[in-house]
Amino acid sequence: MIHPPGNDTSTSALPPPKGKRVLAGLTLATLGVVYGDIGTSPLYAFKEAFTGSHGLALNELNVIAVLSMTFWSVSLIVSLKYVSLVLRFDNRGEGGILALLALVARLTRERPRLAWTMGTVGIFGASLFYGDAVLTPAISVLSAVEGLSVVTPAFDRWVVPVTIGVLVALFSIQRGGTGAVGRLFGPVMVLWFLALAVLGGLSIAQTPAVLAALDPSRALSFAIHSPGLTFLVLGAVFLAITGAEALYADMGHFGAKPIRLAWFALVFPALMVNYFGQGALVLRDPGAIKNPFYLLASGDWLLPLVGLATAATVIASQATISGAFSLTQQATRLGYLPRIPVKHTSETERGQIYVSHVNWTMLILVVLLVLAFKNSSAIASAYGIAVSGTMILTTSLIAVLGFSLGGRRSLLMLAVFTLIGLAEVVFFAANATKFAEGGWFPIACGLVVFTMLTTWKRAETVIAGREGRHRIPVDDFLKICGPDIPRVEGTAVYLSPDSDYVPTVLLHNLKHNKVLHERMVFLTIVDSDVPRLADTERTEVRVLERGRIYQARLHFGFMEEPDVPRGLKLLERHGLRFEPMQTTFFLGKSTIARAAKAGLFTWRRELFRWMQRNSPATAEYFGLQPERVIELGTRVTL
Asked: Which long-range CB contacts under 8 A does 298-305 form with residues at least 24 apart?
């Protein structure tokens, strides 16, 4: 469902609010999941403007200008774009770039070229997220543990080992689920944001002149007089808004209202007060720029602050890890990845999942990043390109979606998103200057993932097209399925990708074994472009020949795992009962043959073959008992 601007019903995936207590609980949970990434940016963002590869000279004019740019950038990108506008669009309560892509795909179905372009945009944006998901744990935890070296330089050599230990522990607990730990996330982040506000407020009270940065003319004046320096420092300023995509991606878990309430009531004020407090500190003591966040605290409070910061960065990392799991699940359901097994780690929370392949791959990459860069400032050079790229692509999809709705309001929204998009393009260009210093890494990750996603989708489309030439319509099959074909006892369930045609695997079985079962069910798993479905919407049955041949469809949303055994139980309402020991499942598997002659894109064919060989069995993905499954394969020659 599309909710246009002005109709804030984006909490449709949640039960109706039961009062202020429910809203307070959701808001607390929002603090623990949604705002971990952007909430830990004060650890490194302000410092990078002066100590990074393109750092400014430390003087009052530059400090005020950087704070002004930070305040108004966060206001424009986070407060206006994401919190006020983007959260108004949802796919039955779900947010995120793939949910948005599904919405746009429905609206552009009659315009194939635009649909293909927007599909490419959405998939590339999703691919870039993986680069961000790897960088966030590395920079967040490392920047927090670096506080140890502020306590005493003797801890310098322990920063990297402790960081790796924390990261290994974080990724190791994913398999068992994070529900128990997750209940602590909200209170810990409340304490974190209160600490940010208190530390920053005490510093501002000593140097109130720093509040001049609230005047947007200070940023504009600096940009006019020093456009080159402004362009370079925007890469550091952008670090203050990384994590904004999580606001939209996590909307389905909490709804828009708690996310907005948490942002304007606590997160936004606390972040800005802390940034301004760091600015006030370096105006009093320029030497504090080496680590202005930790130096806001007095000596007695420094070590507890390191512990609190480490906990907050672990929470921030958890949010991106969970986001990578969810994105992988969605990509699988939308046909851009092979069927990857997903473990649900909670019996009550649908969003808590674990994807083993993604988890351990991310851990390896994160540890390698920490070992290679060794400090948060070096990783900051790589951070930002992927995030700013994803933001631009999200803006493009929202603009197309808004324009498709029509009306005068859509033109106004299109103008607003055009302005925001231009600002994001400038941020992306500023971050691109750090490409050689590490910015290439998230782009490389994004390109690798994008290549895999599009290769799988393209190959599956080619296979389906080739097999379609030999398909037989269901009605024609009934005419040729005469009484002379021998029948054997039991029920055969044939998985079929298209309910209008006879499953190809049935034709292969009939060709080789020359028998049919007494009862046959052509089962089609339908990937819906909505996040979740109620059980009442999940099943369809068509009787082709009473007591002998049936056609069934099981619908699953792209945020759900297709549980076929449970789906078959739901078919009982249509009069279909399945005895486990009398039911055999027939699955088909088609692959692309090796190229007879090497060509320009032979590597892509081999990539698909490799992905297919390493993907889990279809029976495992659908939850079928292996001893009741027969798989027949075919090879497609191009």
From this structure: 302/147, 302/150, 302/151, 303/151, 305/147, 305/195
Q: Considering Cα of 51, then 52, then 57, then 62, what sign does the dihedral take?
A: negative
Structure tokens at 244: 């904004």
Do the beta carbons of residue 340 and residue 332 sit within 8 Å?
yes
Q: Which two tokens stand for residue 623?
A: 């939850």
Find tokens 């799988």 and name the residue.
456
3-state SS, residue 269: helix
Distance CA 540, CA 523 (A): 10
Q: What is the mean pLDDT of residues 61-90?
A: 92
User: Cα(51)–Cα(281) distance, rounded to whole angstroms?
Assistant: 15
Rounded Cα gap, residues 624 and 620, in angstroms? 6
Phi, psi dihedral angles at 179 (to 5 degrees) = -60, -45
Extract the tokens encoding 361: 């791959």
Local structure of 607: helix, strand or coil: helix
Can you state the angle between helices 385-405 and 408-432, rounded to 10 degrees? 170
- CB count, 10 Å around CB of 429? 13
Spatial distance between the Cα atoms of 157 and 145, rounded to a whole number of angstroms: 11
Q: In whole angstroms, what is the distance from residue 249 CA to residue 38 CA?
A: 14
State the Cα–Cα distance between residues 591 and 180, nearest whole angstrom.
43
| Torsion sign across C-alpha atoms 175, 364, 382, 159 | positive
Candidates 43, 444, 380; CA nearest to 236 is: 380
| Rounded CA separation 26/262 (Å) | 9
Neighbours of 385 (CB within 10 A): 30
What is the rounded CA–CA span in Å between residue 54 and residue 41?
A: 18
Backbone angles phi, psi at 626, to 5 degrees: -55, -35
Nearest to 248 by CA among 363, 89, 57, 121: 89
Residue 186: how many CB atoms within 10 A of its CB?
A: 20
Q: Report how far residue 597's alpha carbon sits from residue 637's, in angstroms, rounded to the nearest whole number.
A: 12
User: pLDDT band at residue 126, thresholds of 50, 70 and 90?
Assistant: confident
Rounded CA-CA distance 479/477 in Å is 5
In the chain, the domains with their CATH numbers are: 25-441 (1.20.1740.10), 470-636 (no CATH)
pLDDT at 180 over 60: no
Confidence band for 7, pLDDT divided at 50, 70 and 90? very low
Mean pLDDT of 483-511: 84
- Which 3 state secondary structure label does DSSP give 599? coil
Torsion angle defined by CA atoms of residues 604, 607, 613 and 617, in that order, rounded to the nearest 10 degrees: -80
Which pLDDT tens digit goes with each residue over 325-348? 878 887 887 788 888 877 766 554
